[in-house]
Amino acid sequence: MAAQGLTREMLTSAALRIVDDDGLHALSMRRLGSELRVDPMAAYRHIPNKGTLLDEVVEAVMSEIDTDAVDASLPWQDRLRALAVSYLATLMAHPNAAPLIAERSLRGAGSLRVVEKALRIMTDAGAQLGDAIATIDAIGLLAAGIAQASSASVEQAEATAGKPLAGLPPEGFPLLAQAAAAGALSDGLADVFNFAIDAMIAALEAKSPSGHGPRVP
Amino acid sequence: MAAQGLTREMLTSAALRIVDDDGLHALSMRRLGSELRVDPMAAYRHIPNKGTLLDEVVEAVMSEIDTDAVDASLPWQDRLRALAVSYLATLMAHPNAAPLIAERSLRGAGSLRVVEKALRIMTDAGAQLGDAIATIDAIGLLAAGIAQASSASVEQAEATAGKPLAGLPPEGFPLLAQAAAAGALSDGLADVFNFAIDAMIAALEAKSPSGHGPRVP
DNA sequence: CTACTGATGTCTACGCTGTAGACAATAGTA
DNA sequence: TACTATTGTCTACAGCGTAGACATCAGTAG
């Protein structure tokens, strides 16, 4: 007997809000119900189980990416980079949902739309389909990992009392200790992303038969 | 009153066996206890909570990697590749544990040992520490993603009735449909890994001041 | 207007989870 | 022999996802 009736969209957006605000572990059917002032079981009139609710949340996040925002007149390298950056930005806007996305993307149309767009950018530039898939796979997983890592200190590492390496014996791991001290493991994650993207783009360029991007009309 | 007394190692190896055999979801404290013919609560005499048990499982898997197996006389590119390949091979030997490793590596000495080794290979070759970190981050996340994806069809996708893209409208996603038909999304995952590694290595080579690998004595 | 039908929200209950706290039994030492 | 620390057992609690019965309502056919 809520306002005027539950909808799938209300469930999805409430679920995403819970995840954003209080983390993935806070999203339970009971919590979802109480958020919508409704019996926990009411959700099951609109979704078959919690798994599909999670899929819908992933779809909601992935649909925030505007694949048409990349300027078509730019060279393919820049378009690919722009798409990847906006993908990462979207994940960073919902870092608590990143594990979800890493696990359950490639299912709904919203996610596939982004992948298809990236594939087209690369194959239009002359890349092999297999190499293009390798590139988005690597970039997608990396972005999810980065977004997840960026929120790990907030949600999860509070159980381990601080940074991942805090309290580690610096002797035996001199390079890691040095990197941790320089903040390269947490602050420099955007650099990680850029480095990987540039590496993949350069590899695609090297493999492409023509020296510069071909333009197939 | 079991055989002669529980140990942390018995718990860890039993936990890993459960994960390997029946998946991550099958690992509960009750199941762990029944596997060892012991009360579920007995485990808590040796570990503070389930989370540290999971950390131990990650450590056990990571410790299977033999970082000294890579021939030190090889050029750094080959050594890095060998290390990455043996990392992926280890993950593929425990695909059900891959999500665990993606989430909880960089905590115990066993994991850090591998990372430190990779860092040293790269920095010895003249790479910047930041670039080296970017490389292992990307490779590590990618390997975990690949291992996870390779088992996803077994453990998880049985709920979604088959391959990720099965039952998708091919129109609208022509490239993805083509890739799925060619098996590039499941069979070609090793190629994804090789492509990414080669790309990262090439990027490191390009950034390194000296054209070929320097040898610091 | 009545009676039926389908949709939607509610309630109770089951088996599962991690784990706190009391109790029992055993091993090692003074 | 008596005390103590360690380790396994038992019971119990709050939480989880969700199956199934029941209640309430909107819309339609007679």
Word description of this protein:
- The structure is a homodimer of 217-residue chains.
- By secondary structure, the first copy, chain A, is mainly α.
- The first copy, chain A, folds into 2 domains: 8-47, Arc Repressor Mutant, subunit A, CATH 1.10.10; 67-207, Tetracycline Repressor, domain 2 (Orthogonal Bundle), CATH 1.10.357.
- Helices cover 60% and strands 0% of the residues of chain A.
- Chain A is built from 9 helices and no strands.
- In chain A, helix 3 (50-62) packs across helix 6 (109-124).
- The longest helix of chain A has 27 residues, at 129-155.
- The termini of chain A are far apart.
- Chains A and B meet through helix 5, helix 6, helix 7, helix 8 and helix 9 of A and helix 5, helix 6, helix 7, helix 8 and helix 9 of B.
- Chain A binds a DNA duplex (30 and 30 nucleotides) through loops.
- Chains A, B: GO terms for molecular function: DNA-binding transcription factor activity; transcription cis-regulatory region binding.
Short characterization:
By secondary structure, chain A is an all-alpha fold. The first copy, chain A, is built from 9 helices and no strands. The interface between A and B is large, with 56 and 56 residues.
Overview features:
DNA-binding, Tetracycline Repressor, domain 2, 60% helix, 217 residues, 0% strand, flat, mainly alpha, Arc Repressor Mutant, subunit A
Task: Give the topology, please.
Two copies of one chain form a homodimer.
Chain A: H1 8-22, H2 29-35, H3 50-62, H4 76-93, H5 98-104, H6 109-124, H7 129-155, H8 174-181, H9 189-207
Helix pairs in contact in A: 1-3, 3-6, 4-6, 4-7, 5-7, 6-7, 7-9
The structure holds a DNA duplex (30 and 30 nucleotides).
